[in-house]
Write a structure and sequence with these properties.
Blueprint (H helix, E strand, L loop, with lengths): L1 H36 L8 H12 L3 H29 L1 H19 L5 H15 L3 H11 L5 H29 L12 H14 L31 H9 L2 H28 L2 H4 L10 H4 L2 H19 L5 H21 L5 H16 L2 H12 L4 H30 L4 H17 L5
Helix pairs in contact: 1-6, 1-7, 1-8, 2-10, 3-4, 3-5, 3-6, 3-17, 4-5, 4-6, 4-8, 6-17, 7-13, 7-16, 10-16, 10-17, 10-18, 13-14, 13-15, 13-16, 14-15, 14-16, 14-18, 16-17
């Protein structure tokens, strides 16, 4: 009888511990989501500032594309470096530092006196922004096991998608509601990022072991030769292990095309809908102002990201590449259709732009879940950083190209043709990941 009572007591304690662990897991996820919810107020507001910057500095759209590329390339370099830093020093400290430093860099950008200082400071901000995503991904990889990754990264990317919504909305409020000039776009929204970074540092903890829990990872979680001793690896050994995984490098090329499509939309869709053709749209435009149509894009992105991770886990049995290919094919179709929609078709533009965002951004959750799948959670920060390096290297190449096309043809809708081509390229490359 005493033995039976002891068994019941042990089981009861184990159940309590498990429930406590699950609650703490969700607290870590929500803390990371809350912090990243505000990160894009520090870099995705640029499209709304372009018209004001062009007017004040007298520069072309191609020049603005190069300024945008400065951030994206510095972000790419930062990702290659900072993912490993997150593995080495912990995601909690690195991600919090990124939010605080990026807030300061944005304020510095707001005092730019010309396109050179603007580009240099915007590039510096790109590096600070790169202190966020990969270190945060490492922290989540510490707290969640293999079977939860698609879902968890889906939530994490959903927060990033909602950050895009927040950056669009706050920018519109600053420029059109408060009627402030472009400099205030880099001053007011980023105060939210400062709050998020401080809150994350106070709430989050690096590993379950820090709070007395057992790690959710086991030997099966370390896939493709990622040994359990990876925690003791040097930085060089982590880089070597990640860069020798050909599937991860192939994923880097695929996400490169995907991110080119994504940033093509994020930077240039505001320019498109703030342009003369849409601004003078009649009919239903009296009900929905064209500038608010652009918000459909990040809303679609947020919801798409939340669904794709679930699709990869539950429909394709954690075969991430299938979920990626599906969404990128649909992104190609919807982007081509968006190109054909004439200015003034407010409701049709609203719906199709939502779908463009939904399918273009959705696969990101599967891309990030693929990183620990391929190299193990102990190298997750480095792997995410390397993959994100490819993502922003490609995105930076696309920005001046899009700006040049718009200058040459005086047609902002060309962005949708370029997005369709990039999406089709991403789908094609992702087919060969096959994992």
């Amino acid at each position: 009888m005493n033995y039976a009572q002891q068994s019941v007591a042990v089981k009861s304690d184990a159940d309590k511990t498990q429930k406590s662990f699950r609650r703490t897991q969700w607290r870590m996820l929500l803390a990371a989501m809350f912090c990243y919810l505000f990160f894009y107020t520090g870099r995705q507001t640029f499209g709304f500032a372009i018209p004001g910057i062009q007017e004040e500095f007298g520069v072309s759209k191609e020049t603005m594309g190069w300024v945008s590329a400065a951030l994206l390339w510095c972000y790419a370099i930062g990702q290659a470096i900072n993912g490993n830093i997150g593995d080495k020093f912990g995601g909690r400290r690195v991600m919090s530092a990124g939010a605080i430093l990026s807030c300061g860099a944005n304020w510095a950008v707001s005092f730019s006196t010309g396109v050179v200082s603007l580009g240099a400071l915007w590039g510096l901000n790109g590096y600070f922004q790169a202190l966020g995503w990969a270190p945060g991904s490492r922290l989540l990889s510490n707290w969640f096991g293999k079977n939860d990754r698609g879902k968890i990264f889906g939530f994490y990317v959903f927060a990033a998608g909602m950050a895009s919504v927040l950056s669009f909305v706050t920018s519109i409020i600053v420029v059109h509601t408060l009627e402030l000039n472009w400099r205030w776009i880099f001053r007011l929204p980023v105060l939210l990022m400062l709050v998020g970074g401080i809150a994350f540092y106070l709430i989050a903890r690096e590993r379950p072991e820090d709070l007395g829990f057992v790690s959710p990872h086991d030997a099966e979680d370390e896939d493709d030769g990622a040994a359990a001793g990876a925690a003791d690896e040097t930085s060089w050994q982590r880089y070597k292990a990640v860069l020798s995984n050909w599937r991860l490098l192939l994923g880097g090329v695929a996400i490169g095309f995907q991110n080119s499509a994504r940033y093509g939309l994020l930077v240039w869709v505001p320019v498109h809908f703030l342009g003369g053709d849409w601004a003078s749209a009649s009919g239903s435009a009296a009900i929905i102002d064209p500038k608010w149509v652009s918000v459909a894009l990040p809303v679609g992105m947020a919801i798409g990201a939340a669904t794709n991770g679930w699709v990869s886990d539950n429909i394709f049995g954690s075969k991430r590449y299938l979920a990626i290919v599906l969404y990128m094919v649909l992104a190609t179709i919807t982007s081509l259709y968006m190109y054909t929609i004439p200015a003034g078709e407010i409701y049709l533009g609203l719906g199709v732009l939502f779908l463009c965002g939904f399918f273009v951004y959705g696969p990101q959750s599967s891309f990030w879940a693929l990183c620990p799948d391929l190299v193990g959670n102990k190298r997750a920060g480095t792997a995410v950083g390397i993959m994100n390096f490819f993502a922003y290297l490609f995105a930076g190449l696309g920005e001046p190209l899009i700006g040049s096309f718009m200058d040459t043809h005086n047609d902002t809708s060309l962005v949708f043709l370029i997005v369709a081509a990039a999406s089709a390229s991403s789908a094609t490359v992702a087919l060969f990941i096959r994992r």
